[in-house]
């Protein structure tokens, strides 16, 4: 029967077609030769791009040969290729993800409130590390003073990581929280800014008086680094710190604010930071509104507007430009008299690379600038899943250890 044969052949054909279709669906993109080739080709191209354009050795600029050799010899991290996390090496992604992907080690602080000359109070968080095996004598235990960023406290992940690194090395830490940011009340209508270093001077004098036999160095992050660099430039040879390390500092405030006012960066960072600053002001409205128009401050849309309405007014500057000029550490690099290592990423939108103090650093044998190609702002993520240590943490650990253990070789860098 011809019709029966045709019907049988059609059934066999459709059965085979159905079987083949199901197999193709089951195998999917990765099982097909073409799909697999596309995936492998893309992966190879991405790997080549990453290794050629992303993973690079940092640039080390030092004002003197002695400091340069010290860093090369005692801090191998400055000569090693920095491999940013391959799936989030872009500047903004690194900056945004760091607070979420990095672990927050538990640290049990001892809080101390000290009084400033104007009657205000400053909150210090001590990590005494009394279980230190390498430095059991608390009177001589090396100590690191840590300065967080613009709205940061001792509970920021980057601060906790530095405390953890210090704990492993047997050192003590003390975190300087700017006025009003860590839960304490404002007793006077004054907060803080990058240009004014009076509170930092009070803190350093207090810490040195408290542990007068212990060597002391300092580390500052972002605005904390700017404040620290401004302090070193102002005080010059009066500074008794053994060394300083600064991370992601904004060197020229005019250029920093201009960068953050570009549309995408204004959307991602500027508006958020402005709201954080306003929230801090609003928490202390009762005492601040005695001297300042807080309602006007709360209407600011950018950091620049906030500074024009609040910061520059609080610290008595004739204009916001005068404040920004005074807050920019680039003008004070030439006066730094203690060993200072500065780490910046070339793609940091908070601190654009064309404003890095390259020429000023070259003129000062006490200063070195380490520039990575990538890393963002306080990012520096590395490894497949960057939960624990970052490139920044390794720089901190190696430089701190080098200063405390071999600092005598830095006594005369001229």
UniProtKB/TrEMBL annotation:
Compartments where found: Membrane
Domain AB hydrolase-1, first and last residues per copy: 142-383
Reaction equations catalysed: 1-octadecanoyl-2-octanoyl-sn-glycero-3-phosphocholine + H2O = 1-octadecanoyl-sn-glycero-3-phosphocholine + octanoate + H(+); 1-O-hexadecyl-2-acetyl-sn-glycero-3-phosphocholine + H2O = 1-O-hexadecyl-sn-glycero-3-phosphocholine + acetate + H(+); 1-O-hexadecyl-2-nonadioyl-sn-glycero-3-phosphocholine + H2O = nonanedioate + 1-O-hexadecyl-sn-glycero-3-phosphocholine + H(+); 1-tetradecanoyl-2-(9Z,12Z-octadecadienoyl)-sn-glycero-3-phosphocholine + H2O = 2-(9Z,12Z-octadecadienoyl)-sn-glycero-3-phosphocholine + tetradecanoate + H(+)
Catalytic site: 222, 348, 377
Coiled-coil residue windows: none
Keywords assigned by UniProt, alphabetized: Hydrolase, Lipid metabolism, Membrane, Phospholipid metabolism, Serine esterase, Signal-anchor, Transmembrane, Transmembrane helix
GO cellular component terms, semicolon-separated: membrane
Entry's Gene Ontology molecular function annotations: acetylesterase activity; monoacylglycerol lipase activity; phospholipase A1 activity; phospholipase A2 activity
Annotated membrane topology: Single-pass type II membrane protein
EC primary class: hydrolase
Regions crossing the membrane: 27-52
Residues making up the signal peptide according to the UniProt record: none
InterPro entries, A to Z: AB_hydrolase_1, AB_hydrolase_4_CS, AB_hydrolase_4_sf, AB_hydrolase_fold, ABHD4
The UniProt record lists the keyword Transmembrane helix: yes
Domain of life: Eukaryota
Gene Ontology BP, a term: phosphatidylcholine metabolic process
Family, similarity comment: Belongs to the AB hydrolase superfamily. AB hydrolase 4 family.
Role noted for this protein: Phospholipase that may play a role in phospholipids remodeling. May selectively cleave myristate (C14)-containing phosphatidylcholines through its predominant phospholipase 1 activity, cleaving preferentially acyl groups in sn1 position. In parallel, may have a minor phospholipase 2 activity acting on acyl groups in position sn2. In addition to (C14)-containing phosphatidylcholines, may also act on other medium-chain-containing and oxidatively truncated phospholipids.
Protein name (database record): Phospholipase ABHD3
Lineage, top ranks: Eukaryota, Metazoa, Chordata, Craniata, Vertebrata
């Amino acid at each position: 029967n011809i019709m029966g044969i045709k019907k049988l052949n059609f059934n066999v054909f459709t059965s085979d077609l159905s079987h083949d279709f199901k197999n193709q669906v089951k195998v999917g993109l990765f099982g097909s030769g073409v799909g697999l080739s596309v995936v492998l080709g893309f992966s190879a191209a991405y790997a080549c791009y990453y290794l050629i354009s992303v993973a690079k050795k940092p640039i080390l600029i030092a004002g003197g040969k002695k400091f340069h050799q010290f860093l090369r010899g005692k801090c191998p991290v400055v000569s090693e290729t920095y491999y940013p996390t391959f799936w989030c090496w872009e500047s903004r992604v690194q900056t945004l993800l760091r607070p979420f992907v990095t672990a927050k080690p538990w640290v049990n602080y001892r809080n101390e409130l000290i009084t400033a000359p104007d009657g205000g109070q400053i909150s210090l968080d001590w990590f005494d590390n009394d279980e230190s095996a390498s430095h059991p004598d608390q009177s001589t235990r090396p100590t690191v003073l840590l300065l967080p960023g613009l709205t940061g406290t001792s509970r920021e992940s980057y601060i906790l990581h530095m405390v953890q690194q210090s704990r492993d090395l047997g050192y003590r830490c003390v975190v300087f929280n700017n006025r009003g940011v860590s839960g304490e009340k404002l007793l006077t209508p004054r907060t803080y800014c990058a240009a004014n270093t009076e509170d930092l001077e009070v803190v350093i004098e207090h810490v040195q008086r408290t542990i007068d036999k212990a060597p002391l160095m300092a580390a500052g992050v972002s605005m904390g680094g700017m404040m620290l660099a401004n302090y070193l430039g102002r005080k010059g040879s009066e500074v008794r710190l053994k060394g300083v390390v600064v991370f992601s500092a904004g060197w020229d405030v005019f250029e920093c604010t201009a960068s953050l006012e570009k549309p995408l960066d204004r959307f991602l960072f500027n508006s958020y930071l402005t709201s954080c600053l306003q929230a801090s002001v609003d928490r202390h409205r009762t005492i601040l509104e005695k001297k300042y128009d807080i309602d006007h401050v709360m209407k600011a849309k950018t950091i620049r507007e906030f500074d024009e309405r609040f910061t520059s007014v609080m610290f008595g500057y004739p204009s916001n430009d005068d404040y920004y000029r005074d807050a920019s550490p680039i003008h004070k690099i030439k006066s730094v008299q203690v060993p200072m290592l500065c780490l910046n990423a070339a793609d940091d939108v908070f601190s654009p690379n064309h404003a890095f103090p390259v020429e000023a650093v070259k003129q000062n044998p006490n200063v070195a600038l380490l520039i990575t190609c990538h890393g963002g702002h306080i990012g520096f993520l590395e490894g497949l899943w960057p939960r624990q240590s970052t490139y920044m943490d390794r720089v901190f650990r190696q430089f701190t250890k080098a200063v405390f253990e071999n600092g005598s070789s830095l006594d005369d860098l001229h």
